[in-house]
Amino acid sequence: MGAFNFYNLESLKSITKSADIKEKPVFAMVSEKAIEYAGLEEIIELTKAVKLKTKVDIYLHLDHGKDIELVKRCIKMGFDSVMFDGSALPIDQNIIISKDLCRIAHRNGVVFEAEIGRVGGKEDKVSSAIFKTDPRDAQKFFEEVKPDMLAVAIGNVHGPITANEELDFTLLAKIQDTIKAPLVLHGCSNRLPREYKVAISQGIVKINIDTELRQAFVRGVSTAIKKKISDPREILTIASDEMSEDIKEKIEIFSCEKLNC
């Protein structure tokens, strides 16, 4: 399933409109920075209002929650799913915290995602090669925490990718063979359609897209400004439409079960 980040009304409507057109459920995700920018209560109420006009299921998801208290607040305030990112912690500490949060989430009917291994990228100042997921760590983590979804690091990166940042599908196959769990890939912007297909065929159930959507939104704003459009509503509509085109394309790719479509 596609998982797309938003940070305001226009980006959220890009997600819900695209999901409706493609008739596919999606995750609408907010990061800690998005919550800091827009406000937690505002995001929740905005999502509730937009979902009322949407025909398909839209799941509000906390992306990369590192603040334990914020994760708990999101659980208690009605998020459909949350992610605790303890990937920078020693594995035993990550297990203890994730296990406790997973228990709280399940008590409240909320889907819980955790991460083992660290997703790299310029934004995080982490090399994608150094912190790939160890299948043995993944097995230990999954058996003790029992999350609904587990995010793994196989060369995927946050932010723009470079030519040498390839996904390690051999490692992904080893992880899936070891734990046979619903797996998640973060940092999947600007990948080839076939890469998404192979990932899905090897057990990936949720693919996160953010950077590519920001690029599309900014591209739309730039196009509007070049056209000398001065009405902010028109500018934001063009930006939202540009972002929506990208989301629709991703939903189409993620929905096709064949590797060559």
TrEMBL record:
Its cofactor is Zn(2+). GO terms for biological process: carbohydrate metabolic process. InterPro entries: Aldolase_TIM (IPR013785), Class_II_FBP_aldolase (IPR050246), FBA_II (IPR000771). Keywords: Lyase, Metal-binding, Zinc. The keyword Metal-binding applies. Its EC number is 4.1.2.40. It comes from the Bacteria. The keyword NADP does not apply. Zn(2+) 1 binds at H64, H158, H186. It holds the Pfam family F_bP_aldolase. Binds 2 Zn(2+) ions per subunit. One is catalytic and the other provides a structural contribution. Dihydroxyacetone phosphate binds at G159, G187, C188, S189, N208, I209, D210, T211. The active site is at D63. Zn(2+) 2 binds at D85, E115. One of its GO terms (molecular function) is tagatose-bisphosphate aldolase activity. Coiled coil: none annotated. This is D-tagatose-1,6-bisphosphate aldolase subunit KbaY. It comes from candidate division WS2 bacterium ADurb.Bin280.
